[in-house]
Amino acid sequence: QVELVESGGGLVHIGGSLRLSCAASGTFVNVYTMAWYRQIPGKDRELVASISKIDDTRYDDSVKGRFTISRDHAKNTIYLQMNNLQPEDTAVYYCNADVHVRVDRGSWYYWGQGTQVTVSS
After folding, report:
1. How many CA atoms within 13 Å lie on the side-chain side of 15?
2. What pLDDT is recorded for position 80?
């Protein structure tokens, strides 16, 4: 009943910018916290930024001051504006959402397919 679709990844030079988007679609009661994670092959997936239902935001220290997460509640969509990109930002970026699908069940985490971000000099 829930699908998360990411877009906006690509190849940029050091210092460049990209904007990722993630739209949640399907039938559900509510969407609570949504977040961006990233993963390098062979390493654990790590939280980059999250945004709550009331737009409370949190960032990993490595991206503070460079990345901004935002949310369009009407579209159930989140964005990640990434500025001053560095080689260490290279990863597959995944969208995550805490979704309440049915009124008689609890919420559950859902994942998107991921979008590749590559930063080169």
Report:
1. 1
2. 98
